[in-house]
Amino acid sequence: MKQITVKSKVNAPVGKVWNLWSTPEHIVKWNTPAEDWHTTRAENDLRSGGKFLSRMEAKDGSFGFDFAGTYNEVIPNKHIAYTITDGRKVTVDFQEENNETLIETVFEAENQNSLEQQRDGWQAIMDNFKKYAEKHLV
What we know:
InterPro entries: ASHA1/2-like_C, START-like_dom_sf. The chain is α+β, with helices and mostly antiparallel strands and about 140 residues long.
């Protein structure tokens, strides 16, 4: 199975980035690839064996889906590994350097969309997170 990598550098310390990345009240605000989409609901039990769910929908109501899975490994402020409900594996690594946090996500590609579409969609969500995080530092 092919793997795709997306990255972003967020101008914020890892503790704040981790909190914004993993808290449902924040997830619903940044977890979208485009302006015409939104996440209407998020649940997150961030621990090994814990489950997560994000309900993503087109704002015009034409389409929606649940992005869900189970965490395999969680190392706070460093590493998340999970399996999506379709069986694909994903890792997310957080590395802080000079008060900036590099986030790297590696995921197994699916067969319905081109590799470019998948990479662009996941990168768009990552870019949206960066904008949100840098604007909403608490």
